[in-house]
Amino acid sequence: MAEKKKELKTKPYKKKKVCPKCGHGTSLADHKNRFSCGKCGYTEMKAKNG
Ligand SMILES: [Zn+2]
User: Fold this and answer.
1) Residue 27 forms part of a structural domain
2) For labelling alongside 37, which of 5, 22, 31, 49 has CA 20 to 30 A away?
3) Which residues have CB atoms below 5 A from the ion given as ligand 1?
4) How far apart are CA 38 and CA 19, in angstroms?
5) Does residue 21 sit within a domain?
6) Is this model's pTM higher than 0.90 or not?
């Protein structure tokens, strides 16, 4: 019996936010102080962290 080694490892992608409205695959555009989705227009303010 052949055993297929197929491990799906989720690569630590670049810290990109995913649009909660559009779902996986749609990342938010990185702006100066916010993220925004070019698809639905969702905007998320960046947290001031340092
Ligand atoms: Zn969106």
Assistant:
1) yes
2) 49
3) 19, 21-22, 37, 39-40, 42
4) 10
5) yes
6) no
